């Protein structure tokens, strides 16, 4: 099964408020030009994401759709992994996704049992690609050694206040995608002087600068959230913003390291 190219900017869909909003947000994102949508079983919005896809005039084949399953406590046992995968497809209303991630390497996660289920989904055509999320380099090595399917992507938090040099280098060395979630640091990057300086220089927004900085790295993609059509369009325009070497060096020099997503089950807390 051929690996499909992934659009480097996608729509992140995590939220803790009204999940039903994602039907309209996904529809709007596709309307302004996004072709990559990222969700997850535990976001509890897959049904709305799927409805937004069906509402759109954009053909399903033109949208790169990603979801995640096997969280720290969902499902209850590793034997339920195939059932969880089928549940994602059912809620999304699709026969297959373009990318299926293991959400966290914790709780019920056993690499041989879980990844064999992912291989099974890949072989059965239920996912066109297999990925993992929130792994360390050691766990990535273990996953690649276990999977029969090629590792297509690793998703983890990254933004100008949280550089992930080791994870990006690993992705580049082994030629898979590193997908940055919370790429705007939940808004924390907007008030950073270095980001504002580069934004003023390019007549751009701090969000566009942060996204362009991420995309200046080989093998890196990003899935920012946006609540309105204007912000969606602004984020997508980051694809056209080219930072020069001095811009990148200035952002790299920011002397702050702030993780926004820090659950107790994250492997960095083991």
Explain what this protein looks like in three dimensions.
The chain has 270 residues and is an alpha/beta fold. It has one domain: Alpha-Beta Barrel (TIM Barrel). Helices cover 38% and strands 13% of the residues. It is built from 10 helices and 8 strands. An 8-stranded parallel sheet has the order 1-2-3-4-5-6-7-8. Strand 5, helix 5 and strand 6 form a beta-alpha-beta unit. The radius of gyration is 18 Å and the shape is globular. The termini are far apart. 45% of the residues are buried.
CATH superfamily: NADP-dependent oxidoreductase domain
**Number of beta strands:** 8
Low-pLDDT segments, ≥5 res: none
Envelope shape: globular
How are strands sequenced across the largest beta sheet? 1-2-3-4-5-6-7-8
Overall CATH class: Alpha Beta
What does the largest sheet look like? 8 strands, parallel
- What is the alpha-carbon Rg in Å? 18 Å
